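Q: Joint fold for the lines below.
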Amino acid sequence: EMQVLESGGGLVQPGGSLRLSCAASGFTFSNFAMSWVRQAPGKGLEWVSNIWGGGTVIDYADSVKGRFSISRDNSRNTLYLQMNSLRVDDTAVYYCTKGRNGEGDSYYYMDVWGKGTTVTVSS
Amino acid sequence: DIQMTQSPSTLSASVGDRVTITCRASQSISRYLAWYQQKPGKVPKLLIYRASNLESGVPSRFSATGSETEFTLTINSLQPDDFATYYCQQYHSYWTFGQGTKVEIK
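A: Joint structure:
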């Protein structure tokens, strides 16, 4: 069974840093793009960042660009999100997601979601 | 950036009803649209991909159509387990979610 499991969330003060991890299992991790999606309390879903299987193609939402950094260690089947200069509006549940695309298609959607890890930014 | 707009924001329905949710993209996304279901306190679940393809294991009462900028998700004969929030998501240019449609009990 394909699974992803996030960790690393917690309470941090504004301006602080946090590193999220996502451990993947049940699939060949290096073959798939991975993304982080967040959900603020009582709000909808927001894509944060993605990284392709080889780790060379990376994108960020404008809201986190320059503050967050995504990376992956394919030897450890693990995805990371380094979050710096955290703001109160970064408070959310952060989901790790696996990407899946159609045959001959480079566009991918999220087919496997972790249970999420909660990040709270507050003084 | 591509914006996704869902309507309605909230939908009140009864068990057995047929419900339809609409999702509009601010520009053409071909058929690169997915639908997710999220129950309170739970993880989003993929229902539909490529605008109309039913994910494995999803009941056949769920169906979806659309292309370019107009998309719909239909639930035939609404079941108690279907009361949830539904999100559309474009994946043509980065990834953007609609604001969600809450399907609640009438």
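Q: Anything notable?
A: Chain A is about 0% helix and 55% strand. Residues 51 and 58 of chain A are 5 Å apart (CA to CA).
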